[in-house]
Amino acid sequence: MVVDAITHLDTEIDASMSFVESLPPSPVASTDQEQVEARTRQCKAAKRYLLDAFGIPEGTVIQGSYYVSASIVHPRSSYSSSSSSVNSISEALAWQPRLQGPLVMPTQSDVDTSSCVCIEPFGGVAGAGIIDGFVVARSQGRTLHVDFGIIPGEGSVVLPRFEFESDGDCQLIDELLRGTGAYVERSLIKDDQEGAEESRTETATSVIRNCAIVVDPLDAIMVHVSSKSRIATISTNAVAVTAQRMLSQMDGNNNKELPNVRTKVWSALEAANNTVILGAGVSRDVHLGHILLARLSSGTVEVVNITATQYLHESYELMKAKSEQLAASDGDNAALEVLQRVKPLHELLQPLVGKVSNGLSKMGKIVGGGTLPKDTRPEILSIFLETQHSCEVNVVTPIEEMSKILNSRRDLLKEMHDHQAAELERLTELMEEFKQKHESNVKRVKELEANATKLAERSSAVLTASRSLHPHITDAEAAYFKDLQRCESTCNKWDEKVTQLKKDATSSCDAMSAGAIQNGEVRCLVDLPTEKIDVCHKMLRGEAQLLKQLEQKVKESSDVVEKISKSMSRGETADTARLRLVGDKENQKS
Predict the structure, then answer these.
(1) CA angle 194, 199, 201 (to 5 degrees)
(2) pLDDT tens digits for 282-291?
(3) What is the Rg, in whole angstroms, of the alpha carbon atoms belonging to the chain?
């Protein structure tokens, strides 16, 4: 990671310098040019800090992978062979850091940020390298505010900054950083317990926190927030959804359907009265499962199964949604609304019956007359017509209306009767189906209860077998692996120097060849007489003869080793292979 960071900084420095060189000459630098130059100086300072903190001399070519560690003070002699750096010391404490930002600009709707007590990185894997997430917890009374935010990923914006930075560079870089982050999700956790009074005390040397954040190492979208009285678990995909939206905008797929942000909050653990939660952590052991360990002020350690609590919460939410759906369906009963809109029959008939009674009371007793039609006078005819009209209006017409109302009500009652008969038949079928399902479920429950013990025994046996098969590394093996890594790092470090020495030796041998000496291209700096030169030539020829003999012995040894390897590959032991070789040699001598 250190090599990758240094390489990234070198790439950005080269790109910034190329950008500045490509700008046309101007007596006054533009704001963009000043910001790029300030950023370049920041990258150079960050690179120098990494080299100084990890004790890597500048210009060192690092090949392969090996472990380095940063220390406040450590020598550089283990990374360089030069005599000038044997006693050099890297003092990382001399690099005093500088605050930078603000990365996230607060808005009017944001909570007061002066009460922030803890911040942790969150959702790095979910951000897909495009953005980096973080989670901030702040406390206000009995309410915990948990905010999830994002900043540009891969360290493209945030780099270390130090106190020796000039005021001009500080303003330019802060202007680049201001507002690069944003909050994408917010959750509120309320504590209703009376004994959970929150307190936060700050002194010159210590800070007592009333809440803490524990990022889940097994689930990239889960975080646990701990207070004195409870531990709440929050699961949100806000960072992942934001990264997908940014990816779709970069690719130009604005019409792509993206998932919605889903955030779930549930209580994992609540402390009893007069008990305070001191700390919490999530286990990484796969044999133990996804569990949360919490230490209480009483000295006990509580173990919480995170998977079980999550399933219980989702089951509760599902049942709650089903109950709300049933309540909504009861309110939407169409038959009930129809009945509520239908007026009672007595309210419809009462006015008509009263009208008929009133009309009959006004007419008095109607009897047959004794006047013949030929003896009818105009006044008698007028009385008859008036009585007839009154009878039709006040008696006959209301009776006809009552007849229509009764007929329509009879049709309505018949329709309701048919509908209720059909519903009764459907409910009867559902009841029979429910009885059958209930009987099958009861039978299945009995079978599951009967197999539960067997499954538990099998699971225990599998777990025991897996633990016994799990490889264990002894202390000697661990020390051996460390020696191998140390040897590998040493070989990688000296590989380049050996190559350079080999190259220099080859060039020297080529320069000292016999042809070069005869041509006069190479001459001895020491002026020797002819007799001594002849002696040197004889010594060189003797050395050449010795080298040829040694080369022949090396070749014979290589042949012997190759034969031993072939014999052992055929299944023979080392002693048998040696005896075979001795016999071959004796046969050759004879």
Answers:
(1) 165
(2) 987 767 788 8
(3) 48
